[in-house]
Amino acid sequence: MKNAMLPRYLAEFIGTFGIVFAPVALSGSGQFKGADSSLMAAAWVSGLSVLAMIYTFGHISAAHFNPAVTLGFAVAGRFPWRYVVPYWIAEFAGGIAAAGVAALLFGAGHGTHIPATDSLVRAVGVETILTFLLMLVIIAVATDKRANGAIPGIAIGLMVVVDVAIGGAITGGSMNPARSLGPALFGGSAPLSVYWVYLVGPVIGAVIAVRLYEVIRGGEQYAQGAPSDISGE
Predict the structure, then answer these.
(1) Whole-angstrom Cα distance, residue 165 to residue 151?
(2) CA-CA to 83 of 20 to 30 Å: which in 37, 51, 76, 233?
(3) What gap in Å lies between CA 162 and CA 156, rounded to an integer?
(4) For 31-60, what is the mean pLDDT?
């Protein structure tokens, strides 16, 4: 099983690289004439990159691409705890690599997340709710046997678009500790000092979402792992 997991770890690394590089590169390209630096551009680039990576690697690793999502699946019993840390390592490494490449191409400091509100409680609340909505969609389409297999990428990608459109002006609409950590490491002390917001909020939101969905799922007979061939412990 260990050897069988290696492609999954690599898929998580590359997939996370893709979904982090896309919005960070978009931010970096803003210095060039003709670039679109609008909030909706960021929302669509973020959502479409997630959609594309899900269809690329969903059948291999279940396309977590987010430490909060991996934790959520484990809490729900849909992903073995023994693989959580390796998935986290792959996801954080992918995000850091993406931010590093973007920094080399466009300069450091692009795509960082710093709350625009003075209330960090509000910032955590926004990230919690946005992640709750995202995780609710993810666990429903990824671990419920009744969900159409063609749906996950579209449903999750569009939810990311909605979340970034809502929260982008307030917190950046991260919903993903790996998305925020990479740029923060290359962005100086300011984003690093508030990084905890993008760790605490997504974790709380993801855990609440999976607990709720397990209540309303309607029975274990409808459940599967994420990936579907891996059962929880």
Answers:
(1) 21
(2) 51
(3) 10
(4) 95
